[in-house]
Amino acid sequence: MCAATVAASAGYPDMEPSAHSDDPHLVDRVGWLRAAVMGANDGIVSVASLIVGVAAADPSTRAILIAGAAGLAAGAMSMAAGEYVSVSSQADLENADIAREKQALLDDPAGEEAELAEIYVARGLSEATARQVARELTESDALGAHVRDELGLTEGQEAQPLLAAFASALTFSTFAAIPLVAAMLAPAAALIPVVVIVTLIALTGLGALGAIAGGASIGPAALRVVVWGGLAMAVTAGVGRLFGVAV
């Protein structure tokens, strides 16, 4: 359950009303963008590296394709499970902190209001203004104010396990299919260079898409994705060629 939902179910008004709902902040995308980019990057890199590593060991084309398909299926499920478990743990921590704040407001409302005032003083308000702000927010939405300003949890950025799992699995499968299709269509003699080139191009596009979605500079985002992806493929290919085994 998200922070806003917990606050609402406790009888408090909405945690984080938007002053400009027609122009939301890009940071509100963090709940799904991180998982989506991670899934997409892992899909391309892991399946491409698997294909290149197996190909470097000189097996048959059939073995290469089977390894790639198995990597796609296993990786998608692994990413979904991993995201769900890890983000669920984050949600558990958030909900536990919210429950503690709710109880503290019942046990010591004056102390909690003073704590809010101290937070606002630390942020630059005068003591008198901070006390007034803390008093008005406490009267309006005490739990929401503490969840937002003490715990740092805001609507749109709370842990969402199912969304993270779905986004990660979907993007993993979609982008992992790119090197797999490249391996299926490439001539056997040129399989490794074709997969590497296609993968690097796909990684460049992924870095650009992630930068656009996050409002960041395209160049640095694309470069770091390409560099780390290329390094992963190079290491895997080297291990496959050195030992002559699939890794």
Beta percentage is: under 5%
Structural class: mainly alpha
Q: Percent range for helical residues?
A: over 70%
What's the structural domain tally? 1
| Terminal CA distance | 40 Å
Mean pLDDT: 80
- Low-confidence segments, given as residue ranges, are 1-21
**What is the string of helix and strand elements?**
HHHHHHHH
What spatial form do the alpha-carbon principal axes imply? elongated
The count of DSSP E runs of length 2 or more, i.e. the number of strands, is 0
Radius of gyration, in Å, reads 24 Å
Helical segment tally? Answer: 8
The main pleated sheet reads as: none
Characterization of the model:
The chain has eight helices and no strands. With 247 residues, the chain is mainly alpha-helical. It has one domain.
